[in-house]
Write a structure and sequence with these properties.
Blueprint: E1 3-7, E2 10-13, E3 18-25, E4 37-43, E5 50-56, E6 61-64, E7 72-77, E8 82-87, E9 96-103, H1 106-115, E10 123-124, E11 128-133
Parallel strand pairs: 2-11
Antiparallel strand pairs: 1-3, 3-8, 4-5, 4-9, 5-6, 7-8, 9-10, 9-11
């Protein structure tokens, strides 16, 4: 069973940095079997959930939505079964509940990040609140 747990949210001022962590279980990036996408999403009050970034195991690459490119970096440590989201130069519009998610449909997840459209994910962890004050 795939499980995910995000942490690391908090209150920051504009221009500050935060690093989110997501501990996962039920799959591994080094598995020769099924491919997975593990991703970060966020949802602000009154807005739709949107994808931030993902890592896909079939190609080992990281994908980002346009609005966070150059500011956010997603990385993974399979030994610790943890993925990270380093968020720099935070803006008030980054304020949202941030979620870690996973899916076996790696192509769909890549499309979510590239297009900015939300296609859903199969596995979700509980969110962590990020608040950026102006």
């Amino acid at each position: 069973e795939v499980q995910l747990q995000a942490s690391g949210g908090g209150l920051m001022q504009t221009g500050g940095s935060l690093r989110l962590s997501c501990v996962y279980s039920g799959f591994t990036f080094e598995d020769d079997g099924e491919d997975y996408a593990i991703a970060w999403f966020r949802q602000a009050p009154g807005k739709e959930r949107e994808g931030i970034s993902c890592i896909t195991t079939d190609d080992g690459r990281t994908y980002y939505r346009d609005s966070v490119k150059g500011r956010f970096t997603m990385s993974s440590d399979d030994a610790k079964k943890t993925v990270y989201l380093q968020m720099n130069n935070l803006k008030p519009e980054d304020t949202a509940v941030h979620y870690c998610a996973a899916d076996v449909d790696v192509a769909k997840t890549r499309t979510t990040m590239r297009s900015g459209l939300y296609y859903g994910m199969h596995y979700w962890g509980k969110g962590t609140q990020v608040t950026v004050s102006s």
